[in-house]
Specification:
- The chain is an alpha+beta fold.
- It is built from 33 helices and 14 strands.
- The strands form 3 sheets. Strands 7-6-5-4-3-2-1-8 form an 8-stranded antiparallel sheet, with no helix packed on it.
- Helix 20 packs parallel to helix 22.
């Protein structure tokens, strides 16, 4: 600081000697930076930075300022320098800087006539130097008596040196009106002919004439040197628009320099980019990237646009005929991480920011460059791909230019989608990875749009964009089918695995964007014909399951995150993933249903419940989709889908034919729940009185389901077992599995399961077990036995059950009045459900003297409950009319009672 002030004081008396000293200093720095020693080079570049700082300090103040844009209109105008000058016409260093504008009185319509306005610097109590635009008091200028209109609080030392161009604010005393003004510097306070001979001009001339930039970015470039050269290159970039033509053309510069002659040129920036593409040292390239990005906001359009265009041409193969995707991506990644464009273009236009930002033209060129990277065929291998997408998203949301860029980029996507939609045979060459990326970029652009604009873009021309996305999907599925049939692909196992992995992602992403496009507005709906087309193309189990998840998700309008978390119908991970994936991150508005209610009913009845639908290889995602549609239609009281429609047939089909055991178990629960719900509904309807106050008469037997409303559960089980028998005779490997599941349904329906199931069982009294014969009451024993499935008729089918007999307290008291056992309370389980209810009945004293005892009994599958009661009565010496079975516990029923080796399965029966 002392050395700097000494130089400033020296220039007052010995200007020529001062200029000579700076010339010597520049010569010394040149020798240092051109030496062979790296430490000397680095020291020389430190001297260059000091030269730049000293030259800026010695810069003369502007000759005048143009004030514009102020809300107080009479403040706008030209302010001329009124500070001190030396005898030879130079600004006197270390003196105060001030400017003044006098408003004449004789200007018609001019507000503020006769006022004298000043632009000056004032030292505050905090020792900071603030700038003010004020009406100075004639007697005591620079005091509290001044009328301040606008002010500026400096944030850097340069802003204290001279009035800044922007960043002004309205004075707190409310004398001025918003908006605050912008300032433009004009000329320099120097004698005529010295405008282009300042120390800054001399330094710029020295750098250009000695080709200093080529020393930095040439073949011997070093990362430490590149990092230290940033100040010089930024300084030269600032010299490009510093000079203005002389007001008097007759005056010639004493230095023989024309305006803006010595400054940064486009060729210097192109040399920097060439260094990036040709240099093998990644560290040097990284420093050059940082250099270019740091100076980008300081570049004029004449410099920035050629640089960006050259970088973009590198993607197509420039002069060296190479594709420098990696280098371009690294530059863009540096740009995204540094983020110099993260300032609203509106703020730049308003001029109320002191931070330099690039122009709209350069901004558009950068976006075009980034889009070229995102759409490049090799972009999938870039690690910074997602970072670039996030940066482009922010840029696309900058208004008003963002709207134009979004429409432009979406047009580019539509062109590619149109071309790909025509390639359906597989004979045409197509990059499937790039095709998928363009689909994802289409959604990426739509999500960057406000909701209103996205709706307009999708629904324009009869929803042409949504239809185009659908056509592209069908074309892809056709190409996929052709490729699977290709013998060359079948020979390449690794290629098939890779293709399958990519196909799953490709199909899922395409379905996601179709869900998004058709869910933006009710003016774009999918038709039943489109669903049929997709269903026929997605014949492979994996594709079919993905399509079912899509159809279930698209059938209803989306819910918010909280509602989605509370909805039990969306408890499947795949459905939650697709639902959350389809929500627009920008609009934050849920999507609508992709097709109408009529199409939803059609999809469920004719696609999900089709008799030809094979569930063998489908997983839980497919069934969750079926369940979601089934429940949504059930809530809307579409009874035809539950009682007599195809839904019940589909549930039976899933229970018996699903290859996934978890799917079959869940379908079994839903099937029994449907029967239970229908039975409950029938009982309620039967108890409702009609217009004559008489209860409706149920045509079926009491306690059974209405025969007019649904097919008997037992009859359905019998029909299934008949088909199972046919399957076993035909050596169908799935027949045995179907038989086992059919018996599970039967056991669960009569409350005879193991007790571990959480499904709602149908009471045994609610089921009408009708034998398939005309008159069961007159049938012979042989006819009845023929209805028993094969394997349950022989002696080997006997099962051993354990009988737990319990006499009621009343019986004990009759038998023994003196030693009667106390009355036993009812027995209940942990949930409070009644397990055993003891009855009071008179009878003879049984042979066993105990009140509780147990014994074994062999029973046969066709044996009736009456036969079992008779055996218990005989053993206990108790009237058969007083024997009541109460509860059953033990292992589940098996098709055979005796296991190999004579082992038997046992079931406990409690009776009183």
């Amino acid at each position: 600081m002392i050395f700097r002030e000494s130089l400033i004081g020296l220039i007052l008396t010995r200007r020529a000697e001062t200029y000579a000293f700076y010339e010597f200093w520049r010569g010394l720095a040149l020798k240092l930076i051109t030496s062979q020693s790296l430490p000397l080079k680095l020291f020389g570049w430190d001297q260059v930075s000091d030269l730049i700082e000293a030259s800026e300090v010695m810069r003369p103040p502007p000759k005048s300022f143009i004030v514009s844009g102020a809300g107080t209109t009479f403040v706008n105008g030209k302010y001329n320098f009124t500070g001190l000058k030396t005898d030879d016409g130079f600004f006197r260093p270390l003196s105060e800087i001030s400017y003044e504008m006098k408003i004449p009185n004789n200007v018609p319509g001019k507000v503020g006539g006769g006022k004298t306005l000043t632009l000056f610097r004032c030292t505050m109590r905090s020792k900071q130097k603030w700038w003010f635009l004020s009406e100075a008091d004639e007697e005591q200028p620079g005091t509290d008596k001044d009328i301040d209109y606008y002010q500026h609080k400096p944030t850097t030392q340069n802003e204290e040196a001279e009035p800044p161009a922007c960043g002004w604010s309205t004075s707190p005393n409310k004398s001025g009106e918003d908006p605050p003004p912008n300032l433009q510097a004009i000329g320099l306070v120097v004698p005529n002919g010295e405008e282009y001979n300042t120390l800054e001009h001399q330094l710029a001339k020295w750098a250009i004439e000695n080709k200093v930039i080529k020393l930095v970015l040439g073949d011997s470039a070093h990362r430490e040197i590149v990092s230290r050269s940033t100040d010089l290159i930024r300084f030269l970039a600032g010299m490009c628009e510093k000079d203005e033509p002389l007001e008097d053309n007759s005056i010639v510069s004493k230095a023989g320099v024309t305006p803006n002659e010595y400054c940064l040129k486009a060729e210097h920036l192109l040399l920097a980019w060439k260094t990036c593409t040709s240099k093998a040292d990644a560290a040097v390239s990284d420093e050059v990237y940082q250099l270019l990005v740091s100076i980008l906001p300081n570049l004029s359009n004449d410099l920035a646009l050629p640089l960006i265009h050259e970088i973009q041409n590198s993607l197509k193969g420039g002069a060296d005929k190479k594709d420098h995707l990696f280098e371009v991506a690294e530059f863009c990644s540096t740009l995204a991480s540094s983020n110099p464009m993260d300032i609203d273009a509106g703020a730049n236009a308003g001029g109320n920011s002191s931070v330099a930002v690039i122009s709209d033209e350069a901004r558009a060129a950068v976006l075009k460059l980034l889009w070229s990277v995102l759409t490049h065929p090799g972009a999938s291998s870039l690690k910074c791909y997602e970072e670039l997408k996030a940066y482009v998203t922010n840029e696309l949301r900058v208004e008003p230019i963002g709207k134009v860029h979004r429409e432009t980029f979406l047009g580019s996507c539509k062109e590619t989608l149109t071309v790909n939609a025509r390639k359906i045979t597989g004979a045409e060459s197509i990059d499937e990875i790039l095709a998928l990326r363009m689909v994802k970029l289409t959604r990426f652009v739509l999500e960057a749009c406000p909701r209103d604009q996205a709706v307009v873009l999708v629904t324009a021309d009869n929803a042409s964009l949504a239809v185009l996305l659908f056509r592209e999907l069908t074309a892809y599925l056709n190409r996929r089918a052709v490729s699977l049939a290709s013998p060359q692909l079948k020979k390449q196992t690794s290629s098939m695995v890779s293709a399958d992995n990519h196909h799953q992602l490709a199909l899922s992403e395409r379905l996601h964007i179709i869900r998004y496009a058709y869910g933006l507005s009710d003016r774009a709906d999918m038709s039943s014909h489109q669903l049929d087309h997709l269903w026929s193309l997605c014949a492979v189990p994996g594709d079919r399951e993905a399509l079912m998840i899509f159809l279930a998700n698209a059938a209803n309008a989306e819910m918010g995150p909280a509602a989605m978390a509370m909805n039990p119908a969306l408890n499947d991970t795949s459905l939650q993933t697709q639902q959350s994936h389809s929500v627009s991150s920008h609009s934050k508005q849920p999507l609508l249903a992709a097709y109408s209610d009529e199409v939803r009913v059609y999809a469920f009845q004719n696609l999900f419940c089709a008799s030809s639908f094979d569930w063998e290889q489908l997983g839980e995602g497919a069934y969750q989709s079926f369940q979601l549609l089934f429940k949504s239609l059930k809530r809307e009281t579409r009874t035809s889908l539950t009682s007599q429609g195809p839904a019940l047939d589909a549930l039976w089909k899933i229970c018996l034919e699903a290859g996934n055991d978890d799917v079959a178990s869940q379908a079994m629960k839903d099937l029994l729940a449907v029967y239970s719900a229908i039975a409950s509904t029938e009982r309620q309807q039967a108890s409702i009185p009609n217009a004559w106050n008489k209860s409706r008469v149920n045509s079926s037997t009491p306690g059974s389901l209405s025969g007019s409303r649904m097919e008997s559960l037992a009859q359905r089980v019998f029909q299934c077992l008949v088909r199972v028998k046919e399957g076993l005779e035909a050596d169908d490997p799935a027949a045995e599995r179907s038989a086992e599941r059919c018996l599970r349904i039967l056991n669960a329906s009569i409350g005879n399961s193991s007790g571990e199931s959480t499904m709602d069982s149908i009471p045994a009294g609610d089921v009408n077990f009708s034998l398939p014969m005309s008159d069961p009451s007159s049938a012979s024993v042989s006819e009845v036995l023929r209805t028993v499935p094969h394997g349950m008729r022989g002696q080997a089918c006997y099962r051993t059950i354990v009988i737990m007999a319990r006499r009621t307290p009343t019986q004990n008291q009759v038998a023994n009045s003196s030693g009667a056992a106390p009355t036993l309370p009812p027995i209940r389980d942990e949930a409070g459900n009644l397990i055993v209810c003891h009855t009071n009945g008179a009878g003879r004293q049984a042979a066993p003297k105990q009140s509780n005892f147990r014994f074994s009994l062999d029973v046969h599958p066709p044996e009736t409950l009456s036969s079992i009661k008779a055996n218990i009565s005989k053993y206990c010496d108790h009237p058969i009319a007083l024997v009541t079975p109460l509860a059953r516990s033990g292992r589940c029923a098996m098709t055979g009672g005796r296991l190999p080796g004579g082992e038997t399965t046992q079931t406990n029966l409690t009776s009183v």
